[in-house]
Design goal:
The structure is a single chain. With about 120 residues, the chain is mainly alpha-helical. The longest helix is centred in the last third of the chain and has 23 residues. The protein is globular, with a radius of gyration of 23 Å. The N and C termini lie far apart (about 55 Å). Helix 2 packs across helix 5 and helix 3 packs antiparallel against helix 5.
Length: about 120
């Protein structure tokens, strides 16, 4: 699994653990994804990741509270669940991209190869 795949897998593991969704989202994003640059992701996934990053950094923190924690604290559980779903979907796309095989190729049959009979020998 790629570096990005491992980072997103770790985040998803936190998201599916026990506890309130806001706590899980805060931990998953802060511990595993916050320091990623969108340029590290495949081009197709960058807009969703940038939207997630912007959404989770939208509230100015009070005191020493991290920005992500302050932002998630202010959102509804539904909003937190939607952002958690985005993380899962990004992970899913990364995983499926790595699992896809190369496009199929047409392989010609050599005229030199002997033909096999479909009738039983007898």
């Amino acid at each position: 699994m790629s570096y990005l795949g491992k980072r997103f897998e770790a985040a998803v593991s936190v998201l599916v653990a026990d506890g309130p969704i806001k706590q899980r989202l805060t931990a998953a994003y802060s511990e595993h994804l916050d320091d990623l640059e969108s340029s590290e992701l495949p081009i197709k996934l960058r807009p969703a990741f940038m939207e997630l990053h912007t959404a989770l950094h939208s509230v100015k923190p009070i005191g020493r509270e991290p920005c992500v924690k302050a932002t998630i604290r202010k959102m509804s559980s539904k909003e937190a669940g939607d952002h958690a779903r985005t993380i899962f979907l990004l992970f899913s796309e990364l995983f499926h991209k790595k699992q896809r095989s190369a496009p199929l190729r047409v392989v010609g049959i050599s005229k030199k190869s002997p033909k096999k009979s479909l009738t039983p020998a007898g």
